[in-house]
Design goal:
It comes from Ruminococcus difficilis. With about 290 residues, this protein is an alpha/beta fold. It has eleven helices and nine strands. Helices cover about 40% and strands about 15% of the residues. Helix 2 runs parallel beside helix 4 and helix 9 runs antiparallel to helix 10. The relative contact order is 0.11.
Length: about 290
């Protein structure tokens, strides 16, 4: 297999097989991330993609799922993606689900009709790392789009019949904008109606501009208790029914699962209990031990 560097994949999707069709991230400017900092974006040679599919077909010819790599492989134009999707189905004829993480901006260069064709070829579920629905926060962390862009592109995905996840990055607005980040994100997420909402807690990794800004006093990180209070505010204002997942802010006990609206009161109660009685030193230690997003 032609894996050219560290492999990042969604652990909630089937983890085999994986197929690298791009390297790096087209944006590579988010202030909290170093995952692809030294990896220029490029498409994998089509010969490598075909060789990898031949290898997968030899090992698991009956594969029904596959996860595309790397950071945002759907950044490729439809004209470049379609032959790859057709090739996947040719080598793996029982293919049902082709998964990929991607950016909101990657949907912009595709029409609804092209997205429908992608769904027919197996792209039925994608993950959008939106991080926030608050315009000030999105600008602050240099995501490269605004809340109106999120809504517009998610509407296209709904029209095309492609399910999608949305991620909320707890704490990324800093102390001064925590409330706006939580409430405005919940409002935009609720309007977009994703099948799944995932939340993770901000970690200021070495080499990130956000850590450097924090060290200069230009960004004020939240304490562990403030992170939980922000997450609670986000949950209280989230009104779409979805699967809800949280990780590396709290343990996730009693929080993660389907049917969010049915479980919302229990999630709120669990968060309030964690805020009141949780071991903040332990949560801080868990955060300090994180090495990557």
């Amino acid at each position: 297999m032609h894996f050219t560097g560290t492999v990042y994949r969604n652990p909630y999707w089937p983890t085999f097989p994986l197929l690298e069709i791009t390297q790096g991230c087209t944006h590579n400017k988010c202030k909290f991330c170093t995952m692809y900092r030294d990896v220029p974006f490029r498409m994998s040679p089509i010969e490598h993609i075909e060789e990898d599919l031949q290898e997968i077909a030899a090992i698991k010819p009956d594969a029904t799922t596959i996860q595309l790599l790397s950071a945002n492989p759907l950044a490729l134009s439809f004209d470049k993606l379609e032959p790859i999707l057709v090739m996947i189905n040719r080598y793996l004829p029982q293919m049902e689900y082709i998964y990929a993480a991607t950016r909101v901006t990657d949907i912009r260069n595709k029409t609804v009709e092209e997205l429908k064709k992608m769904r027919e070829l197996g792209v039925k579920e994608i993950s959008l790392g939106v991080e926030s629905g608050d315009d000030w926060t999105l600008d602050r962390i240099n995501k490269g789009y605004h809340a109106s862009d999120i809504i517009e592109q998610c509407n296209k995905l709904h029209e095309a019949g492609i399910d999608f996840w949305m991620s909320f990055l707890n704490g990324v607005g800093g102390k001064e904008y925590s409330r706006d980040h939580a409430i405005n994100s919940a409002r935009i997420f609720s309007q977009c109606k994703p099948m799944l909402v995932g939340t993770g807690g901000l970690v200021l990794f070495p080499g990130t501009p956000l850590l450097e800004e924090a060290q200069r006093g230009e960004f004020t990180p939240l304490s562990e208790k403030e992170m939980l209070e922000e997450l609670l505010l986000f949950v209280e204002n989230l009104t779409c029914d979805c699967t809800f997942i949280t990780h590396h802010t709290v343990s996730g006990k009693n929080l993660t699962g389907p049917d969010f609206l049915q479980r919302k009161d229990k999630i709120v109660t669990a968060l309030k209990n964690e805020i009141e009685h949780g071991d903040m030193d332990m949560l801080a230690a868990i955060r300090r031990n994180k090495r990557t997003l």
